[in-house]
Amino acid sequence: MTNYNKYKKIKSILFNQRLDNFLKKKLKGIKTSLVYRLIRKGFIIINNKTVTAKNKLQLGDKIRIPILYINKNQININETLRFSFSNTITYESNDWFIVNKPSGFAVHGGCIGNIGLIDALFLIRKDLNFIYLVHRLDKNTSGCLLLAKSINFLLFINFAFKNKYVEKCYLALVEGAWPIKFTYISAPIKKYKLHQNRVHYNIVNQLGKPSYTFFEICNKFTGFTLIKVFPITGRMHQIRVHTAYLGHPLLGDEKYGSIFGKKFSFYLKLKRLFLHSYFLRFPELKSGYFIQIKTKLDKDLFLVLNRANTYLTY
């Protein structure tokens, strides 16, 4: 029989907070991967029901979690990673900070069983009691990532995202010559599931959720094109799915790319997905003014473009 701790009812400060983020604060010293495993296995109970990590807490919710014996030595980060992550913070205010996320690291460690960006930041920035992810980047996507340091800013920026006051721009290198006419796509995206209800990949499907993306050509090369991408909605893998659907997948995309893309990636010595969150524009909480942030391309992507310039034909 599982032993449980009983927590008080959810107060207003926790209203609408995701369950996984609440647990990571409550269960300090526990690996993020264990938190997600407890949720998946049904050990976390809200109002006498099992839930998912994405469950939003509501006023008056009663949460039960198992008693855990915490070993603080479970959480550790070597000095190389500590240095790498500590240098990712590029801009900061009292309410938020911007991270230039490295490629190859998941935002949440529980996704791959290893330490994630949020875990590392909690360990490095011991002065912060609250770090909340405002929007997501895939593991292999680099660049501009906004994080909240206060519940007030979190609620404010969530409202801004919902009402389209936030603008995001990505730099992407795609297969082939991107047609000038491809400036916008409206194509619903649906999750495609395999056995055991596991999400394998997303597809364009009329039964999916509405998804909108704008495009702008930056530079054309022989066999590939550098474009700016402006996603209006925020579906999982939206940019990757939309570009692949239009016949021009991202270079380095092992899931949605083509055999030709793999050849080009080898040719350019590209060892990752060429997708970088380049620009973010969002309103400030107190002043109401808009903040504009740009993050530089990672060195490896910059070198890829230098190699591509050798074959520039347009």
From TrEMBL:
Q: EC number(s)? A: 5.4.99.-
Q: Name one GO molecular function term.
A: 23S rRNA pseudouridine(955/2504/2580) synthase activity
Give any single GO term for biological process: enzyme-directed rRNA pseudouridine synthesis
Name the source's superkingdom. Bacteria
Which keywords fit this entry according to its UniProt record?
Answer: Isomerase, RNA-binding, rRNA processing
Enzymatic reactions: a uridine in RNA = a pseudouridine in RNA; uridine(955/2504/2580) in 23S rRNA = pseudouridine(955/2504/2580) in 23S rRNA
Is rRNA processing tagged as a keyword? yes
Q: Which residues form the RNA-binding S4 domain?
A: 17-76
SUPFAM superfamilies, alphabetized = Alpha-L RNA-binding motif, Pseudouridine synthase
Positions annotated as active site in the UniProt record = D138
Q: Does the keyword Translocase apply?
A: no
Reported function? Responsible for synthesis of pseudouridine from uracil at positions 955, 2504 and 2580 in 23S ribosomal RNA.
What PANTHER family does the annotation carry? MITOCHONDRIAL RNA PSEUDOURIDINE SYNTHASE, RIBOSOMAL LARGE SUBUNIT PSEUDOURIDINE SYNTHASE C
Instruction: Please state which protein family the record places this protein in.
Output: Belongs to the pseudouridine synthase RluA family.
* Name listed for the protein in its UniProt record: Pseudouridine synthase
Please name the source species. Candidatus Portiera aleyrodidarum MED (Bemisia tabaci)
Which lineage? Bacteria, Pseudomonadati, Pseudomonadota, Gammaproteobacteria, Candidatus Johnevansiales
